[in-house]
């Protein structure tokens, strides 16, 4: 009797003892690696997503001498988002579908190993807007690969061998993955794509030791499935109350209501909170889904251990324009109104730059980061709600009516391409789109695994609406998030679809769709260097140091939504639109092909 | 004098516009590609195997071309820009991973078009899904064909067409 009782007890204790050190090590491994500026060990350079590097060997004086140190072809043609990851003497490079992973030796640029998963090509057509993939995660000697077909795979970082694999969704119902996972403590976090297929969004945490599910928090639905405590989870500092999501949908529309989570995830180790945003409600036809459609289009803060929601903030209640809220959350401590605040800064698709208190979810600043934004006049700071302009409301204008000249377009004043923050200049460097649209919603039927869109749209340069004589489709801006003001703005002919990098050398880097890597002065925005890589850049710039030398790395390879929108702005006649005719299409400037380009100063 | 100058200018883009200005009549670009002017517009030509599956009426009098299309072509435009444009891009001009249908649809026959639309296609770079199970598309094959043929034939310029009354 006694003995029988003892066995499970002992095994439980053993399990606890075994898992305990593991838990601490996992946390420390990522924290330690990201604190060492020689590495680029996570998508944002650090858990806070600042994309800032303390390296200063390359600085605003010598960046003009930058040269290409080496290059590497991925052999994959479609859009290359995300960026290379560097741990010690090894670089890990990922590709879009088929999601290859290369381990490269920094000593001689030879390939240590290649992993190419076998995935059903039926996954490809279920992916909206190209087969992009935004990157890998590393922890405890493992590489985490989030495949397009939703399989999350742990690879041995030394050998590339599969340690475990878990299925996170089902492409047959339209769910796929494009996001970079993030490892927090003993769990790896990942989300889901498929907002255009009526997929119900969630964030999932898997145990890194075996891939078992630790927790899963849906964006919509009953409180328990969203991991919401009606009395403790807050929005605008007030408890959200019971059934906060269910009350904002007609019937059970929330089941196919989107709120997917395909963006970036940040983490504050001191608060133990994970931050991310949710995507558009399905369908794009707002007239058929009355209500605020919570919690689509929302910034979420969750406990990393349990997934329980600390606070939410819905930026675009009842979306009428496809302004997904999934863009990165940058965690920075800033002086606001004479007080040092732990802030979260987010540049939303809807064109507003938000500064929040990341401890409490208090809204501190909400201002337009592109002056062209016209769908709302401002955000009411008491209620947190955007004040929608009636003539740009596709819901008010109704089904089968074309609502014209809405700014920004569906691809947002900024899409997923992550911004950077320099604690030296206290500025955010933001790659933006400067595109407007006409939008016409109409009725569609839902069928699992089939696109569920319900609107048609045309996009064109914002200058056509602002009538200021401009034709540029993008800007690269410096932003003061304490006041919500643009410090400087560099016009770019095409959308800036590349993630930015800021360094302690007071240089800021970004890429362009024509394929240029550009370096600008962090204070003035003055261009200091540019180089044309083999293809258009939708990837993110990173930096690392190896053998005492600082390198800058970037993936080029045109594609993504930017690749589809390459001809945006060319609708109708070119008469009266000045230089628009000169843009023709991006294919005049660049062609397909994934290449890594690595830069350094001459010896 | 002024009117003469205007007439000269306009005649470069076709006599049809003058008629539009003077009489308010529309100009029809018929399926066979010929442009005719009349007031009032004649009844549409009866559909035969030789006529393309669309009617496009373009008016250049405002300085920008505004095109009106029949209901079927309009529905085709709208369906295309809800579903197909995520790969083949706005106005069917093609993207980095899906071909321009302005070029492709002109190069294949209707039978082939309908087959690919229903059953999909695997190309060198991309994979196109078959649409036979999607109720938002599978009832609109003819509409899509009409719109894309109008684009491929050069009868319909890029942009949002208006719907003929």
Structural write-up:
The complex is a heterodimer of chains A (603) and B (165). Chain A has a single domain (2-68, 116-600), classed as 8 Propeller (Methanol Dehydrogenase, Chain A). In chain A, strands 16-15-20-19-18-17 form a 6-stranded mixed beta sheet, with no helix packed on it. Chain A has a 5-stranded mixed beta sheet with strand order 1-34-35-36-37, with no helix packed on it. A 4-stranded antiparallel beta sheet of chain A has the order 2-40-39-38, with no helix packed on it. The longest helix of chain A is centred in the N-terminal third of the chain and has 34 residues, at 2-35. Chain A is built from 6 helices and 40 strands. In chain A, strand 36 (516-521) and strand 37 form a beta hairpin. Chain A is globular. With 603 residues, chain A is mostly beta strands. Chain B is of the alpha+beta class and 165 residues long. Chain B folds into 2 domains: 2-41 and 52-70, no CATH class; 72-156, Cytochrome Bc1 Complex, Chain D, domain 2 (Orthogonal Bundle). Chain B contains 6 helices and 7 strands, in the order H-H-E-E-E-E-H-H-H-E-E-H-E. Chain B has helices spanning 2-12, 16-23, 71-88, 101-107, 110-119, 141-152, and strands at 27-29, 35-37, 56-59, 66-69, 121-122, 127-128, 162-163. In chain B, the strands form 3 sheets. Chain B has a 3-stranded mixed beta sheet. In chain B, helix 3 crosses helix 6 (141-152) and helix 4 (101-107) packs across helix 6. The longest helix of chain B is centred in the middle third of the chain and has 18 residues, at 71-88. The radius of gyration of chain B is 18 Å and the shape is globular. The model of chain B is unreliable at 1-49 (pLDDT under 50). The chains are: A mainly beta (603), B alpha+beta (165). Chains A and B meet through strand 31 of A and helix 3 and strand 6 of B.
């Amino acid at each position: 009797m006694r003995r029988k009782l003892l066995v499970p007890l002992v095994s439980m204790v053993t399990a606890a003892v075994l898992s305990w050190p593991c838990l601490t090590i996992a946390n420390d491994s990522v924290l330690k690696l990201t604190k060492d500026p020689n590495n680029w060990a996570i998508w944002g350079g650090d858990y806070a997503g600042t994309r800032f590097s303390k390296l200063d060997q390359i600085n605003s004086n010598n960046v003009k001498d930058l040269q290409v140190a080496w290059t590497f072809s991925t052999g994959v043609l479609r859009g290359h988002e995300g960026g290379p990851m560097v741990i010690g003497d090894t670089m890990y490079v990922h590709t879009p579908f088929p999601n290859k992973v290369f381990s490269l030796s920094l000593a001689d640029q030879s390939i240590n190993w290649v992993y190419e998963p076998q995935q059903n090509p039926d996954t490809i057509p279920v992916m909206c807007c190209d087969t992009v993939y935004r990157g890998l995660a590393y922890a405890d000697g493992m590489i985490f690969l989030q495949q397009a077909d939703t399989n999350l795979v742990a690879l041995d970082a030394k050998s590339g061998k599969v340690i475990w694999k878990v299925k996170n969704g089902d492409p047959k119902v339209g769910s796929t993955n494009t996001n970079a996972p993030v490892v927090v403590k003993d769990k790896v976090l990942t989300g889901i794509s498929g907002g255009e297929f009526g997929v119900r969004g969630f964030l999932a945490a898997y145990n890194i030791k075996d891939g078992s599910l630790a927790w899963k928090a849906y964006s919509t639905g009953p409180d328990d499935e969203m991991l919401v405590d009606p009395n403790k989870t807050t929005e605008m500092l007030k408890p959200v109350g019971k059934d906060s999501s269910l009350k904002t949908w007609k019937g059970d529309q929330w089941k196919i209501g989107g709120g997917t989570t395909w963006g970036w995830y940040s983490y504050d180790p001191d608060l133990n909170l994970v931050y991310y945003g949710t995507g558009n409600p399905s369908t794009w036809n707002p007239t058929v889904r009355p209500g605020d459609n919570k919690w689509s289009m929302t910034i979420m803060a969750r406990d990393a251990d349990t997934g329980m929601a600390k606070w939410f903030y819905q930026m675009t209640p009842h979306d009428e324009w496809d302004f997904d809220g999934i863009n990165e959350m940058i965690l920075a401590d800033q002086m606001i109104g004479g007080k040092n605040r732990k802030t979260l800064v987010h540049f939303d698709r809807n064109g507003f730059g938000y500064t929040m208190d990341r401890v409490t979810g208090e809204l501190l600043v909400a201002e337009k980061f592109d002056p062209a934004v016209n769908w709302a006049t401002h955000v009411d700071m008491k209620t947190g709600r955007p004040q929608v302009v009636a003539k740009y409301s596709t819901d008010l204008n109704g089904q089968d009516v074309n609502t014209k000249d809405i700014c920004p377009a569906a691809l947002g004043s900024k899409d997923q391409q992550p911004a950077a923050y320099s604690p030296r200049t206290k500025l955010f460097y933001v790659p933006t789109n400067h595109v407007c649209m006409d939008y016409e919603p109409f009725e569609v039927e839902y069928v699992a695994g089939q696109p569920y869109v319900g609107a048609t749209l045309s996009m064109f340069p914002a200058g056509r609406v602002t009538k200021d004589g401009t034709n540029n489709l993008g800007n690269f801006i410096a932003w003061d998030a304490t006041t919500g003001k643009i410090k400087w703005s560099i016009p770019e002919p095409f959308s800036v679809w590349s993630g930015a990098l800021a360094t302690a050398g007071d240089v800021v880097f970004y890429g362009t769709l024509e394929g240029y890597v550009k370096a600008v002065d962090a204070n003035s925005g003055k261009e200091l260097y540019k180089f044309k890589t083999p293809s258009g850049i939708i990837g993110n710039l990173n930096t690392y140091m190896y053998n005492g030398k600082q390198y800058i790395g970037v993936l080029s390879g045109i594609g993504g939504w930017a690749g589809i929108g390459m001809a945006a702005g060319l609708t109708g006649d070119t008469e009266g639109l000045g230089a628009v005719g000169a843009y023709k299409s991006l294919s005049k400037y660049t062609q397909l092909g994934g290449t890594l380009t690595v830069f350094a100063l001459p010896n | 004098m002024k009117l003469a100058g205007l007439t000269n200018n306009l005649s470069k883009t076709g006599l049809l516009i003058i008629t539009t200005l003077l009489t308010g009549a529309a100009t029809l670009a018929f399926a066979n590609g010929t442009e005719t002017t009349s007031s009032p517009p004649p009844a549409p030509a009866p559909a035969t195997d030789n006529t393309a599956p669309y009617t496009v009426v373009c008016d250049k009098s405002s300085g920008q071309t505004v095109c009106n299309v029949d209901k079927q072509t309009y529905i085709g435009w709208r369906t295309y820009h809800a579903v197909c444009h995520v790969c083949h891009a706005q106005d069917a001009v093609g993207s980095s991973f899906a071909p321009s249908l302005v070029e492709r649809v002109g190069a294949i026959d209707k039978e082939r078009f309908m087959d690919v639309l229903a059953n999909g296609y695997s190309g060198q770079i991309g994979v196109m899904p078959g649409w036979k199970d999607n109720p938002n598309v599978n009832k609109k094959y003819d509409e899509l064909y009409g719109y894309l043929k109008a684009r491929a034939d050069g009868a319909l310029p890029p942009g949002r067409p208006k719907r003929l009354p």
